[in-house]
Amino acid sequence: MLLLLAFALAVSGLAMGVIDTISNLQLVKIYQKDSTVFLQALHFFVGLGALVSPLIADPFLSETSCVIGNSTTNATSLRHLRNKLAGRHVHNVSSVHLHTDGEVVTNVSYAFWIMAIINLPVPIGILILMYRERLFTCGSDPSRRLLDGDVLAMKTWGTTRLSEDTGHQKETSRSHVDLFSCCLLGNVHSFPLSFFGIHILGGLVLFFSDGIVGSYTGFVYTYAVAPPMNLPHKTAGYLTCVFWAAITVGRLSAIPLSYRFKPVHLLIISQVGVIVTLLLLLIFSNSSVFLFISTCCLGLFISSIFPCMLAFTEDVLEYKGCATTVMVTSAGMGEMLLQVIVGSVMHNQGSFSFLLCGMIFGCLGFAFFILLFFVQQSHKNSTEGASTL
User: Fold this and answer.
1) Where are the beta strands (DSSP E) in the chain?
2) Burial level of 323, CB count in 10 A (0-12/13-18/19+)?
3) Which residues cross the membrane (predicted)?
4) Which CATH number does the domain 193-383 belong to among 1.20.1250.20, 3.40.50.300, 1.25.40.10, 1.10.472.10?
5) What are the residues facing 104 on neighbouring strands?
6) How many of the other CB atoms lie within 10 Å of CB of 362?
7) Nearest-10 Cα torsion for 188, 192, 196, 197
8) In degrees rounded to 5, what are phi and psi of residue 296?
9) Would you report the helix, strand and coil content of the chain in percent, each value rounded to 5?
10) Are 262 and 308 in contact (CB under 8 A)?
11) What is the DSSP secondary-structure string of 101-166?
């Protein structure tokens, strides 16, 4: 069963990675200068899903053993294992034996069925889009393409660039065929060094910011129930919900803010807010009340870094598309690797290292963002100088 679960999670993660990359890439290429607003809306729904999913699963989770047998032994073993995973005695967890003989009474499968039904409209919508795109050979109207509707919508939306430059339409249609042409080795000589520096630094910024999101979500409960906090398990469980609720609210509020402010300004505010919040967490590390307040503040500030960084870098690089794929991949790597690092450090050094790791990651992300800001200025000057020649 464990191998089947690992395989299912691997397939699910692979599919979600593809969806994440393509959705961000397409929004950037379609809306370009206005992509910040749509990226904020996209990631708002990502945060909303991460908030709602645990709430759907919670009624189906058992406080005791999921198997009816020797109920006293099962409940005792479950509590013993929960205390170990909470960070009190994390050594030799394999010594805990959970009895699996008896009648299975868990209803957790209902949560998976509910989430599957909620997600069912997504593949249906994709099939409809594929039909309109004439990707199916039978029954489609060859005279109509989905991109024609996009061009008409852009006209009614107030885009005047289509009437000014008809050659831009040809370049856009060509980009769907040759999507990653900017990354081909044959074109390396045509790009300045700052072009690659922006990709690397932007990826590192998202590596650490999404790594903070993943590690904070994964280990704030463990930190809260361990000394010196010693919060009750149920109270500590609300921290993850508060964090994702703050991220969702932050991305929702960033949608109107994206109309009034440039992505770089929102990025500066977000990065400074993350550093200040993590620093205050270290200072007031013994306050359970401030832990909830800082969790909310951290979610608000870190929420818009991902969409704003995509819009900012693609704007600097003139929407060639490769930056989005690099940054989405870097963010996923950070969310994966930094959780492993934080878990290992907490295992060896104790729960306080959770806050220290977060502060280190936040400072590294801020430092790479400062470097990115100066590199993009250099890139802008070099491209403007080349265009005047």
Assistant:
1) 67-68, 103-104
2) buried
3) 110-131, 200-224, 236-254, 266-284, 290-312, 324-346, 352-375
4) 1.20.1250.20
5) 67
6) 24
7) 160
8) -65, -45
9) 80, 0, 20
10) no
11) -SEE---HHHHHHHHHHHHTHHHHHHHHHHHHTT-SSSS--TT--HHHHHHHHHHHTT--HHHH-T
Q: Where is mean pLDDT largest: 45-54, 120-129, 144-153, 330-339?
A: 330-339
Cis peptide before 228 (omega within 30 of 0): yes
SS3 61: coil
What separation in angstroms does the CA of 127 have from each of 15, 26, 145?
A: 16, 17, 14
In degrees rounded to 5, what are phi and psi of residue 68?
-85, 120
Q: How do residues 14-54 score in pLDDT, each as one tens digit?
A: 888 888 888 888 888 888 777 778 888 888 888 888 888 87
By three-state DSSP, how is residue 203 classified? helix
The encoded tokens of residue 98 equal: 């959970």
Asked if 93 and 81 count as a contact pair (C-beta separation under 8 A), the reply is yes
**8 Å CB contact between 245 and 263:** no
Domain spans in the chain, listed from the N-terminal domain onward: 193-383
pTM of full prediction above 0.85: no
State the DSSP code for 227: T
275 close to 298: Cβ distance less than 8 angstroms: no
